[in-house]
UniProtKB/TrEMBL annotation:
A GO CC term attached to the entry: plasma membrane
Membrane topology label: Multi-pass membrane protein
Transmembrane segments: 16-37, 143-165, 177-197, 209-225, 231-254, 304-323, 349-372, 392-412, 418-436
InterPro entries given in the database record: Na/Ala_symport
Species this protein is from: Blautia obeum A2-162
Gene Ontology MF terms: amino acid:sodium symporter activity
Family designation: Belongs to the alanine or glycine:cation symporter (AGCS) (TC 2.A.25) family.
Compartment list: Cell membrane
UniProt keyword list: Cell membrane, Membrane, Symport, Transmembrane, Transmembrane helix, Transport
Alphabetical list of Gene3D superfamilies matching this protein: Amino acid/polyamine transporter I
Pfam families: Na_Ala_symp
Protein name in the entry: Amino acid carrier protein
Predominant place of localization: membrane
Amino acid sequence: MDVITNLINQIDAWVWGWWMILLLLGTHIFMTIRTGVIQRKIGTAIKLSVTKDPDGEGEVSQFGALTTALASTIGTGNIIGVGTAIALGGPGAVLWCWLTGVFGIATKYSESLIAVKYRVKTKDGRMQGGAMYALERGLHMKWLGLIFAIFGGFASFGIGCATQVNAIATVCQENLHIPPAAVGIAVAVLTALVIFGGIKAIANVCEKLVPFMAAFYVIGCFIILCINYDFIIPAVVTICKMAFTPGAAAGGLVGRGIMMAMQYGIARGLFSNESGMGSAPIAAAAAQTRNPVRQALVSSTGTFWDTVVVCLMTGLVLVTSIMKNPAIDMGQITNGGVLTTLAFQQIPVLGPVILVVGIISFAYSTVLGWAYYGERCVEYFAGRKGLVPYRILYIAVAVIAPVISLNLVWTIADILNALMALPNLVAVLLLSNVIVAETKKYINNLDAKDDTEIEIIDR
């Protein structure tokens, strides 16, 4: 067993090595240039995200599709993941994480655009889309679409379900003294009540849950930053300085140099917002929208909120709290979860509450979002007959997740996430001319309706 574990860990280290980081970041920068710096439209995109488009064809509102995507991306990685980046890469990792989000907006826009452009409709009126359909219909590479769908379906059990439910169980046991087994059953029941209702039920829950949890967390972080106000400017200076140079700062913070800061900051940023992974476009394809550019802009705001706002807030809270509280011994901490817990515990009453509510709500929303992604992937390679078995297995994983060791599960899911990204990036890069053409066609006329007929499939 140790041999297998070591082999899987080596594969994980390789697939998430520098080549993958450079490929993803390179795609972010390339698509930023190709789309004419689409980030400049983020204000318009945010306005569109809360605007209903009843004239558009789709299953759920633009906001419903966005919150379903945000449900899966705003997860424990936004809290614990940022702590991991700081613990291993130093405070400078926060800057690289943030920059990854800024450039990642262009990739999220691009992958969502082709997901909507090449989406199809089933005979019973359900919209299907994502990297698999873009590969099949845009590039005639169905074999690669099948590979993406298989990786995505299996990854959902790990990163979308098991690891998230385990995080909920851990925080409930440590702070509320609720047995892990009881948490697993409760989460499984709540998940079953939602996912058997399909995308509309998932979107309805996410429309209510995601804005609440994000607002609660951001407001809580803002209050903590007000408490730590005297360390905000020193923290920003420290983050910017240590993104490029090694050294020490108040609170035992240590800059580990540009390479370490980049590696962990970029990796956590990519993992947090999922730009380039191909997951969020699956939800975007179900949106009611007049044209691909309109929904692509809405989807791009997911990366903005997830990394540019939420991850930055977490980073500032952690760094200011560490600098203000010398009791946090950075020399003894290499675990992001431990660092995050210690930092939030320095704030009486408010800190632990924000941490507990944040992790529970973020993790549960991720369970719902990834359930939808997994369903669409399974339906692509197994047909509709695979949906009920998939849902039953997904719920079963939620039940057992709190009482099993997840180190190996997490690593395997991490590998599958990277393998998902490769076919998706092939689609984005090879269809970049299509993305540019569609952008030019609709960017200054967002109310124009796409007259391309959506293909009806027998599935």
